[in-house]
Amino acid sequence: MVVGDIPDAADVVVIGAGPGGYVAAIRAAQLGKDVMLVEKDKLGGLCLNYGCIPSKSLIHTADLVELFSMKHDNGISVSGVSFDPAQMNDWRERVIKKLRDGIAFLMEKNGVTVKTGEAFFESSTRVGIRTEHGVELVDFKNAVIATGSRPREVKELPFDGQIIISSKEALELRKIPESLLVVGGGYVGIEMGGMYAKLGSKVTIAEALPSILAQADADVVSLMRKQLQAMNVKVLENAKQTSFSKTSDGKATVKYSINGAEETVQADKILICIGHAPVTQGLGLDKTKVELDKWGFIKVNERLQTTDAAIYAVGDVAGQPMLAHKAFMQGKIAAGAIAGENVAYSDRVVPSAVYSDPEIASVGLSERKAKELLQDNILVGKFPLAASGRALTMDKRYGFAKVIAKKDTHEIVGVTVVGPSASDIISEAALAMQLGALLEDVAGTIHPHPTLSEALSEAAEDALGKAIHV
Ligand code: FAD
Q1: What are the phi and psi torsion angles at 114 (to 5°)?
Q2: Does the CB atom of residue 19 touch ligand 1 within 6 A?
Q3: pTM (2 decimals)?
Q4: By CB atoms within 10 Å of each CB, which of 6, 124, 469, 470 scores lowest?
Q5: Which residue lies with its CA nearest to atom 40 of ligand 1?
Q6: pLDDT for the residue numbered 465
Q7: Which residues are CB-contacts of 97 (< 8 A; sequence separation ≥ 6)?
C-alpha cells in the first residue's frame, strides 16, 4: 500500500543510521541541507547496538572480574568475587540506551527527520520506505547509502540463534556458556574469545588460516598466542572443519583436520566470527546506476560518490576496512561532497584496534607489508614494554611499540602498539602520520614520564639507532 499520492521530499535521504549514516545526516544538516534519515532497526546501527559498544562494555566487565579474581604481586587479593551475567547485560543495555538517546537528541537538535522503515530505491531520485503504515515515497536530490554489513555464515554451520550464534547473540547472552567454540581468529573472534574466557567459559578458537590475526606481524601474533594460552584459551590454526553434529544434551561436536591430525571440539555454543558481508540486497539498486565491485561492496570514488552521480555510499557497505571510525569520516566527507565542499577520502591513515588482552593497535603499514612494498628502504624501531617504567608500575609488561619508517626520508609509514591502552596511544601515531611526521619529530617530542606513550618516542629513537632505555 502506498501512503498518500504526493511523495514527500528531502534534499538528502540517508539510508541506515549507523556511524556512517547518522554522521552523514548531521553533517549534511549542518551544511544547510534538508535531511531525512531512514533506519529499519535502531539508531546507532551495528556499532552501537550489536558491535563496538556492547563488546567493549562486556570486555570491561570481564577485565574487572579477572582483576578481582587474580592474586597480585603488590599484596592485594580479593575473596568472594562474584558477578551476575543478567545484571551485566542490563548494564550493557543501559550504556547503549544512553548513547542511542544521545543520537536521537542530536538528530532533533540538527533538524534531521528520522523515519523508521526499510528504504529501497524506486529510481535515481526517489526512495520508497516500508513503514508500519505502508510504503511512503520520498523524492531526493542526493542519497547516501549507509546500510552497513551483516555477519557471514559458515555454510556447514548455519546460524540457528541457539547453539550456532553470531556476535549479536553472543553479546546478549544472559548465561555464560560452560564451553564456547569461536570459529574465526580475526579481531572479533579474539576479543570475544578472551572476554568469555575471563568470564569463565572454556574457550577454543578455530582459525582456518595458518595464523590467527592473519594480517598482523609475526611478533604480534606470537605474543597474542602466548597470552591466549595463559588465559586457557585453546587456539587451533590451519583448522579445516570435517564434521559437525549436535548431541542429545544440547551440545555441539565439531571435528577439525589440522595438518592431517584430527581434533574434536565439544561446545555449548559456537560463535561464528568469520567476517561481515555488505548489505545491498533488497535496496533496489537495479533501479539506479549504482554498481557493486567483485566482493559485493558498492563502488565509490574518493568523494564517496557511486556510479550514480546523485547517490553516495559510506561505511561498511562501501568497502574495507569495516570500522566505525572509517564510517564516521566517510559520512562527513560524503555530506561535504554533496554540499559542494572540496573533500576527498584517503585510506592512508586509518587506525585499527583490537580490544584483546593486551590490546593491539596499528596504523599505516605493518612491518611485513612495508617490507613487501618498500623492500630494503625501511627502518624499524621497537621498544618493549618490559623496559617501560609506567608498564611496570601497572604490572603490565607484555607488549611493545614498533615504528616503521622509510630509510631514505625517515617518514613514518606504520606504527603498531601492543599493550594496555594501545587503542588510545595509537591516536598519537595516527596524528604523526597524518602530518607526515619523520622519526625525528616523534623522537624529539617530549613525552610525559612515566607514561605508556613514551614507548612511541623510544621506538622512534631505536629506529634512528639512538635508543636510550633499551
Ligand atoms: P552499520 O553500523 O551496520 O549500520 C547500518 C544501519 O543500516 C543498520 O542500523 C541497519 O539496520 C540499517 N539498514 C540496513 N538496510 C537498511 C534499509 N534498507 N533501510 C533502512 N535501514 C537500513 N568497529 C570499530 O571501529 N571499533 C570496534 O571496536 C568495533 N567492534 C565491533 C565489534 C563487533 C562484535 C562487530 C560485529 C563489529 C565491530 N566493529 C567495530 C565494526 C563496526 O560495528 C562497523 O564497522 C560499523 O558499525 C559500520 O558502520 P556503518 O554505518 O557502515 O553500518
Answers
A1: -100, 130
A2: yes
A3: 0.96
A4: 6
A5: 52
A6: 97
A7: none
